Amino acid sequence: MKTRLLSIATILCAFGALNVHAETVADALEKCRNTENSLKRLMCYDNVAKSLNKYEGSDAQIGLLQTYKATKGNQVNPQPDLISEGHVQTSEPKNDFGLEYKRDLSKEASEIAVTIVSIEKNLRDNHIITFSDGSVWRQTDGTYMKLEEGQPVAIERGILGAFFLSVEGLNKRMKVKRVK
User: 152, exposed or middle or buried, with CB in 10 Å at 0-12, 13-18, 19+?
Assistant: First the structure.
């Protein structure tokens, strides 16, 4: 009886050894993702991060990450538009004050001074203003301000992504949004 159990155990171990394969990082992360308890899931992710070198194919992924970091570090003002297979394509920033969602704001100006080139009105009687730097802004509130072509104005950044146009000497601000 003992010999039968021993032979069955040996056969099961042999079949189990055939199915063993090296786990990839993606497999390990998938296991972590399927964990219900949030604390255990976090611990699982931490364990995967600490022992990346034991997973199959991790060298290639770490190499891609290092290539990305090196490429990003060599650029003056990177704006990644597309990151695939370790390649980073960037676009040089032009004058994009007001297009905050496209770049990092940590070292940006909170106000610009420009001159009005042209003023138009839309169907809702709001101003559409073109400035000397080529940017086009649209009024988004009902504030009345007398504006003229050639007039110097300032656009300042407010909170929560708002922008305000102000004229020197006036105690009034008009809420605006950049269109172009």
Answer: exposed
pLDDT of residue 128: 92
Sequential DSSP letters for 109-138: -SEEEEEEEEEEE-TTS-EEEEETTS-EEE
pTM of the model: 0.42
Residues 6 or more apart in contact with residue 67 via CB below 8 angstroms:
86
Which amino acid, one-letter code, is at 145? M
70: pLDDT strictly greater than 80 = no
Count Cβ atoms below 10 Å from residue 128 Cβ, excluding itself: 16
Relative orientation angle of helices 38-50 and 25-33, to the nearest 10 degrees: 170
- Give residue for tokens 């007001």: 98
Q: How far is CA 122 from CA 117, 128, 137, in A?
A: 17, 7, 12
Contact partners, residue 62, CB within 8 Å, separation at least 6: 52
Tokens at 170, concatenated: 């006036």
